[in-house]
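Hey, weird one. I pasted the protein-glutamate methylesterase sequence into the form twice and got a warning about non-standard characters only the second time. First submission, copied straight from the form history:
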Amino acid sequence: MPQHRDVVVVGASAGGVEALRELLSALPADLPAAVLVVLHMPTGGTSALPAILRRAGRLHVQPAANGASLRHGHVYTAVPDHHLLVVGDVMALSRGLTENGHRPAVDVLFRSAAHTVGPRAIGVVLSGSLDDGAAGLMSIAAHGGAAVVQEPVDAICAGMPANALREVPTARVAPIAQLADVITELTAERVGGQPVGHDWTEEALAVRKDDALERALWTALRTLDEKISLGHRMEQTAMQRGNGYGARWYAASVAEATQAADVLRHFIRDDVLAQEGTAR
């Protein structure tokens, strides 16, 4: 049945507080979507972001809570030292491995939205350094979601927007002053989709969920492989530009993703072997 784009996931880093304040100040109070925000932050203590954003606009702003339902007109901000994920119509917090040197990481939020709500997702990359969010935005676009990027020359730090556009050149691009209108317009679009569980018997649904889990595992592995490939390219680019710090950062990111991919490959292999043993 047709649905609307109603899950907005936003990623930002350096210069992101200013961009988020301006974006939220222009979004309508009756926005027909939930907004989830990852801003790179230190691991300790509490985040002041919810209080800052509450003063900025008319939407309800609160820290993300594990297992809480997503509500239209509400903004949920990631909390320190936890990844924020979309799991259908609820949110989840995870202490999983850092990605791109961060927890919370933008790519984690974006990938989870791509895999669980598909075309309902709107991914938004704002000001920030390096490339967190680029691979995740590519995943959102690949799953039929909408990709939106702050105009790099308009951002305080152009790295994240520029890298996102390099991976998703078809993304909608606009200065921060116009992004609220772009997002509001996208939430009005109708997209295809069928909620899992509708008109399925218990047996058929169980089989479908098993298939969905297997597809999700392979999709996660492909995403990690894409991240590794992108990291290698960015490392080479940094080296060519004489950016030793950037090259080392990308090399560490590749090593981290490679380790995670190896773990996932072993898990998939063991699961396949177990299924073959059961079949015998």
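That's the output from the first submission. The warning seems to come from a hidden character in my clipboard, not from the data itself. The helical segments are 16-26, 49-54, 106-117, 134-142, 159-167, 176-187, 202-240, 244-279.
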